[in-house]
UniProtKB/TrEMBL annotation:
<keyword id="KW-0732">Signal</keyword>
<feature type="signal peptide">
    <location>
        <begin position="1"/>
        <end position="31"/>
    </location>
</feature>
<dbReference type="Pfam" id="PF01915">
    <property type="entry name" value="Glyco_hydro_3_C"/>
</dbReference>
<dbReference type="InterPro" id="IPR019800">
    <property type="entry name" value="Glyco_hydro_3_AS"/>
</dbReference>
<protein>
    <recommendedName>
        <fullName>beta-glucosidase</fullName>
        <ecNumber>3.2.1.21</ecNumber>
    </recommendedName>
</protein>
<feature type="domain" description="Glycoside hydrolase family 3 C-terminal">
    <location>
        <begin position="438"/>
        <end position="637"/>
    </location>
</feature>
<dbReference type="InterPro" id="IPR017853">
    <property type="entry name" value="GH"/>
</dbReference>
<dbReference type="Pfam" id="PF00933">
    <property type="entry name" value="Glyco_hydro_3"/>
</dbReference>
<dbReference type="InterPro" id="IPR002772">
    <property type="entry name" value="Glyco_hydro_3_C"/>
</dbReference>
<keyword id="KW-0326">Glycosidase</keyword>
<comment type="similarity">
    <text>Belongs to the glycosyl hydrolase 3 family.</text>
</comment>
<dbReference type="InterPro" id="IPR036962">
    <property type="entry name" value="Glyco_hydro_3_N_sf"/>
</dbReference>
<dbReference type="GO" id="GO:0016787">
    <property type="term" value="F:hydrolase activity"/>
</dbReference>
<feature type="domain" description="Glycoside hydrolase family 3 N-terminal">
    <location>
        <begin position="65"/>
        <end position="399"/>
    </location>
</feature>
<keyword id="KW-0378">Hydrolase</keyword>
<dbReference type="InterPro" id="IPR051915">
    <property type="entry name" value="Cellulose_Degrad_GH3"/>
</dbReference>
<dbReference type="InterPro" id="IPR036881">
    <property type="entry name" value="Glyco_hydro_3_C_sf"/>
</dbReference>
Length: 641
């Protein structure tokens, strides 16, 4: 999922006011025909928690007007409804979300819970009192909340090769998220990243479908081991995304603004697609019963019928309905990505009709909710969308709400809010950081470091918690600086040595030091904004190269750490390093990096993606013909504690 671009942010207030004005022109969701009114006077079986979920869904669906059903299929952004909350009631909205950086004025656990509960009260003011489902991008912890535990991004978790740790991470994320109100997370991303030039590489667990499939256990961390867990205060509804093939698009195929690969086209045959891109979703559905799935912005172009006729996933009847729902057996609901249907061919009614008929169930229409409701109502009344398709979509959404226990407990259970960012949670994140570190080179036993050594640290990323957290941290794109509490890599080094000199630009004298540590890497970005060719490159910055040259040329032992969301090109600088470590984007607990540098924990991480020799070598993946990377998939040296 994405956050609005600047042009959307700039017009948010105007759009919200326009949307509010539009509501008055819509048919009221409270209007009921006589037959339904008569049935509504009967016993409300859907309110009886003792009845089976399927029976409750059927009973409630039979009491709903068409307007109420379409409302359930509609999701609005909080920025569009916050100033006019009665829209939730008037439109009978099924869901509200927070995009990246869309936070309450009081960005605290209580501020979040108060906001979500206020929206919920508006949903409960509707005729049938159907509770609201609130969604958020908790993609590496409850990352929109300042003070939450922020874990390494997925690529680092892939490097741990520890599914149990991934499960534990997401269970903590579920607790911290649900304690603040949202009951639904747009995670995990189970895409298979096949080209590290992609700006979302760090959201993937890796390039091999087997690894990603193993890490799909994240769903169990979010949702629990059985359906009953969903209704507790320790679990949330998960979303497997982005179905399917978004990590396998062709470089240069994107038509979204200046993006080069994100939201592009996956050119493949059905057999390869099933083996590479689809495999994690089969496990997500059949083994873990994922409650929702988010189709991708990307398109698929089957080679069997000739290249040149790609179909956007939001319109792909074959993959959404025939494959996912019928063949694989997905019984949850599909939610579109941010305004995804707006990318389909045709006018807005055609876009809506096409996507609904293809199998989309809920529509993320952040600033177009009133227009969406009006349009879909018109399409149904004109017979272009069948009532049966609407009822199928709404049944799936209601099923999730019943399983979450929202009808019995619609408001936030704040009992576990005290655990948010707790030492216990941060200890798990610190363990994850340590296990994610991949030792790629270690000449002459440079690591682990020895006690009493004088250490010289260079590089901005050594002491910038915003950079080490990456995108999707407090805001959509993330930002540099002290944006969240936690420990930087430098903090961790200083916890282990009393002889540390830090110089961001390596301008301080280097003499008298035994070890130089140079921390290089990227600054934050998210989605296609980070695509190579869209203002980004895999090459190290000139400043990072200069720091390596100076420190490695002056100090006897030189260690380089790379803090980035993907491999960077280090081929020409590698001979100057005694040790080279890929640190990924560790999140809030940078001290975990120091744990392996100083031998408190051993290096055990392994590359989840292939490390290229040059940018031009991409895409390169394990199993390719003439496979000759700088470091192969799975590479990772070991040290002892």
């Amino acid at each position: 999922m994405r956050h609005p671009h600047r042009r959307l942010i700039a017009t948010r207030i105007g759009r919200s006011l326009a949307a509010f004005a539009t509501v008055a022109a819509l048919p009221s969701a409270v209007a009921v025909d006589p037959a339904l009114a008569a049935r509504a006077r009967g016993p409300a079986a859907y309110l009886d928690a003792r009845r089976p979920v399927a029976e409750r869904v059927s009973d409630l669906l039979g009491r709903m007007t068409l307007e109420e059903k379409v409302g359930q299929m509609t999701q609005a952004e909080r920025g569009a409804v916050d100033g006019a909350r009665d829209q939730i009631t008037t439109l009978a909205l099924g869901s509200v979300l927070s995009g990246g950086g869309s936070v309450p004025a009081d960005n605290t656990p209580s501020g979040w819970a108060d906001m979500v509960d206020a929206y919920q009260s508006k949903a409960l003011a509707t005729r049938l009192k159907i509770p609201l489902l609130y969604g958020i991008d908790s993609v590496h912890g409850h990352n929109n909340l300042v003070g939450a535990t922020v874990f390494p991004h997925n690529i680092g978790m892939g490097a741990t090769r520890d599914p149990g740790l991934v499960r534990k991470e997401e269970q903590i994320t579920a607790v911290e998220t649900k304690a603040t109100g949202p009951q639904w997370v747009f995670a995990p991303c189970v895409c298979v990243s096949r080209d590290v030039r992609w700006g979302r590489t760090y959201e993937s667990f890796g390039e091999h479908p087997r690894l990603v499939t193993e890490m799909a256990v994240a769903i169990e961390g979010f949702q629990g081991g059985n359906k009953r867990d969903l209704a507790t205060n320790r679990h949330v509804l998960a979303t497997a995304k982005h179905y399917a093939g978004d990590g396998d698009t062709v470089f240069g195929s994107s038509t979204s603004g200046t993006y080069t690969i994100d939201q592009g086209v996956t050119v493949t045959d059905r057999r390869t697609f099933a083996k590479v891109d689809l495999a994690p979703y089969v496990t997500a559905v059949r083994k873990y019963g994922v409650g929702s799935i988010m189709p991708s912005f990307s398109s698929v172009d089957w080679t069997e019928d000739g290249v040149g006729n790609p179909v956007k996933m939001s319109a792909h009847t074959e993959l959404l309905t025939e494959v996912l729902k019928k063949k694989i057996g997905f019984d949850g609901f599909l939610v579109s990505d941010w305004e995804a249907v707006h990318q389909l061919p045709g006018d807005y009614p055609t876009q809506v009709r096409t996507s609904v008929n293809a199998g989309m169930d809920m529509f993320m229409e952040p600033y177009s909710a009133p227009q969406f409701v009006r349009t879909l109502l018109d399409e149904v009344r004109a017979g272009r969308v069948k009532t049966s398709r609407i009822e199928d979509a709404v049944s799936r959404i209601l099923k999730a709400k019943f399983e979450l226990g929202l009808f019995e407990h619609p408001y936030t259970d704040r009992g576990l809010a005290r655990t948010i960012g707790s030492p216990e949670h941060r200890a798990v994140a610190r363990e994850a950081v340590a296990k994610s570190q991949v030792l790629l080179k270690n000449s002459q036993g440079a690591l682990p470091l020895r006690k009493g050594e004088r250490i010289y640290v260079a590089g901005v990323n050594a002491d910038d918690i915003g950079n080490q957290a990456g995108g999707w941290t407090v805001t959509w794109q993330g930002s540099s600086g002290g944006i969240i509490p936690g420990t930087t890599i430098l903090d961790g080094i200083e916890q282990n040595s009393s002889h540390v000199t830090y110089s961001a630009d390596a301008s301080a004298p280097t003499s008298g030091n035994d070890v130089g540590i140079v921390v290089v890497g990227e600054t934050p970005y998210a989605e296609g904004v980070g695509d190579v060719g869209n203002g980004h490159t895999l090459n190290l910055s000139d400043a990072d190269k200069a720091n390596i040259d100076k420190v490695c040329g002056a100090i006897r032992t030189c260690v380089v750490l790379d803090v980035a969301g993907r491999p960077q090109i280090v081929t020409d600088r590698l001979p100057r390093m005694d040790a080279f470590v890929m640190s990924w984007l560790p999140g809030s607990e940078g001290a975990g990096v120091a744990d392996v540098l100083f031998g408190r924990r051993p290096f055990t991480g392994r590359l989840p993606v292939t490390w290229p020799r040059s940018e031009g070598q991409e895409p390169i993946n394990i199993g390719d013909r003439d496979y000759a990377p700088l470091f192969p998939y799975g590479h990772g040296l070991r040290t002892r504690r």
